[in-house]
Design brief:
Helix 1 crosses helix 2 and helix 4 runs antiparallel to helix 5. The protein has 2 domains: 102 residues, Peroxidase, domain 1 (Orthogonal Bundle); 78 residues, no CATH class. It has 8 helices and 4 strands; from the N terminus they run ααααααβαβββα. The protein is α+β, with helices and mostly antiparallel strands. Keywords: ATP synthesis, Cell membrane, CF(1), Coiled coil, Hydrogen ion transport, Hydrolase, Ion transport, Membrane, Transport.
Length: 188
């Protein structure tokens, strides 16, 4: 249900942004609204409170965002509140942001390495990803996990490339156990 809600509202906003030829403007507004909502925990509590009537919640959202973001985004927020889906607003925004990035061929890559990568290594990884994918630009996120021992794991969407030493050792151990099992079977 949550995925359907985020897709429905996210697609609607994306279509309006495309029609108005304002993808970048809507993207900036959505990011700003998402940050404002994330940083204001009291607003989220207020919008989720069962004793506050829907009309009051709509008025609060309208008062907060009117004049700061487009009428279309205020309208979307009002509709989300009216339909009782405010708890999904972050997912709606994230879905929209992902749709805009995909449309503009901007990939998001999560790179985990065993040690901190130098700037030159980071540039080489990004260059290689640009050469081997459809994307024209990447938002790169780097992390260090010493348990990888060596190598790296790269995740782009639902695709994962794992060249870590830890995984290679695990695969080798599995293969060796299969060989031992087959040798044991023959000995019986």
């Amino acid at each position: 249900m949550a995925k359907l809600v985020s897709k429905t509202y996210g697609d609607a906003l994306f279509e309006v942004a495309l029609e108005k030829n304002q993808l970048d403007e809507f993207l900036d507004e959505v990011k700003a609204a998402q940050t404002a909502i994330e940083e204001n925990k009291e607003l989220f509590k207020l919008m989720s409170h069962p004793k506050i009537v829907k009309e009051e919640k709509i008025k609060i959202i309208t008062d907060i965002f009117t004049g700061k973001v487009s009428e279309e985004l205020v309208g979307l927020l009002r509709m989300i509140v009216d339909k009782g889906h405010f708890e999904q607003v972050d997912r709606v925004f994230t879905y929209f942001i992902d749709e805009v990035k995909e449309y503009k061929n901007i990939g998001t890559a999560y790179v985990t390495s065993a040690m901190e990568l130098s700037d030159a290594q980071k540039a080489a990884v990004e260059k290689r990803l640009l050469e081997t994918t459809k994307y024209v630009k990447f938002e790169m996120h780097y992390d260090v996990d010493s348990e990888l021992i060596g190598g790296m794991v790269i995740r782009i969407g639902d695709r994962v490339v794992d060249s870590s030493v830890r995984t290679k050792l695990y695969d080798l151990t599995r293969e060796l156990s299969k060989i031992q099992l087959k040798a044991g079977e023959c000995a019986s």
